[in-house]
């Protein structure tokens, strides 16, 4: 039976040291049996730059060509996560790391949105620069009664955490599967 994708997302990935810091928080929450959702779905620490729940409007080969060209024009840049937050109206009971807004991060998002629009890809208001909220998930699908405990664990996370944005990838969901990634500043595709 042929499985149909629910959608695609473009994600910004980090250098190995920063990625490991985020994974450390995931592992602590999992060991304490608070949540292991992000580990179970085999996610990778990231900031979502774009997402579409309409896979029929996106062709991965088009995205690969676009992102390979786009990534070659953007150099890796510093990124700092400075706080732990959650969306107040969220029903998924989650926490995330908030990056300190930087010109490089905001410029990347603006240029990516423009590039997608030029290809005729609809960019929802959630990903337009004036309303986009960059974040890196550290806990998802938390049981409501464990929210305070999860926050207490995450509060021990030594912030700020600094590293580099290194590559951009495309994932298909659900289930989550990385389609490809491209290193920033080059035209080198990663398996």
Question: Over all CA atoms, what is the radius of gyration?
Answer: 16 Å
The low-confidence runs, each spanning 5 or more residues with pLDDT under 50, are none
CATH superfamily: Cyclic phosphodiesterase
Q: What do the pLDDT scores average to? A: 90
> What share of the residues lie within helices?
25-40%
CATH class: Alpha Beta
Give me the number of helical elements. 5
Based on CA inertia axes, which overall geometry fits?
Answer: globular
Overall number of strands: 8
What is this structure, in a nutshell?
This protein has 191 residues and is an alpha+beta fold. It is 30% helix and 28% strand.
Describe this structure in words.
This protein is α+β, with helices and mostly antiparallel strands. The protein has a single domain, classed as Cyclic Phosphodiesterase, Chain: A (Alpha-Beta Complex). The chain is 30% helix and 28% strand. It has five helices and eight strands. The chain has helices spanning 16-31, 37-40, 60-71, 103-118, 147-155; strands spanning 7-14, 47-52, 77-85, 95-99, 136-139, 161-173, 177-183, 189-190. Strands 1, 2, 3, 4, 5, 6, 7 and 8 form an eight-stranded antiparallel beta sheet that branches. Strand 7 and strand 8 (189-190) form a beta hairpin. It is globular.
What distinguishing features does this structure have?
30% helix; alpha+beta; Cyclic Phosphodiesterase, Chain: A; 8 strands; 5 helices; 191 residues
Write the layout of secondary structure elements.
Elements: E1 7-14, H1 16-31, H2 37-40, E2 47-52, H3 60-71, E3 77-85, E4 95-99, H4 103-118, E5 136-139, H5 147-155, E6 161-173, E7 177-183, E8 189-190
Antiparallel strand pairs: 1-2, 1-6, 3-4, 3-6, 4-5, 6-7, 7-8
């Amino acid at each position: 039976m042929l499985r149909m994708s629910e959608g695609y997302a473009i994600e910004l990935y980090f250098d190995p040291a920063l990625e490991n810091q985020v994974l450390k928080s995931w592992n602590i929450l999992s060991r304490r049996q608070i949540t292991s959702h992000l580990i179970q779905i085999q996610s990778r620490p990231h900031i979502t730059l774009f997402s579409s729940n309409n896979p029929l409007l996106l062709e991965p080969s088009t995205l690969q060509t676009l992102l390979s060209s786009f990534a070659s024009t953007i150099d890796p840049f510093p990124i700092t996560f400075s706080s732990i937050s959650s969306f107040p109206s969220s029903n998924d009971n989650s926490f995330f790391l908030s990056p300190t807004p930087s010109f490089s991060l905001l410029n990347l998002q603006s240029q990516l949105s423009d590039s997608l629009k030029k290809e005729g890809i609809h960019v929802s208001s959630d990903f337009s620069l004036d309303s986009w909220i960059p974040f890196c998930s550290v806990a998802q699908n938390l049981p409501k009664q464990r929210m305070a405990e999860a926050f207490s664990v995450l509060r021990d996370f030594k912030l700020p955490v600094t590293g580099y944005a290194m590559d951009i990838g495309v994932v298909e969901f659900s289930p989550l599967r990385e389609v490809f990634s491209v290193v920033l500043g080059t035209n080198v595709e990663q398996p």
